[in-house]
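User: What would this chain look like folded?
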Amino acid sequence: MPRERLLIIFLIILSGLLAASAVNPYDRATWFMEVAPVLIVMPILVRVTSFLAICFAMLGLTREQDRQIDNLRVTESRWRYINGSSSN
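Assistant: Here's the prediction, encoded as structure tokens.
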């Protein structure tokens, strides 16, 4: 499932939960203080996710290539540990 689709599903579910919690809160001011961080982070999450997707597309990295790079780093660090070499 594409990342954008998962983000949209997550935002729909989160918005529904926020709307359900706003129906009849015991204290509206307390409810708003508890929900305000979520309302602040939601647009940031959307912006950062789209920005990261653009960055990965520009770099041409796929998830498989990213895993291969991570495996190479792990292998290299093991090699240095076995041979007693320092990374400097």
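Helices lie at 3-21, 28-59, 63-83. If you want, I can go into more detail on any region.
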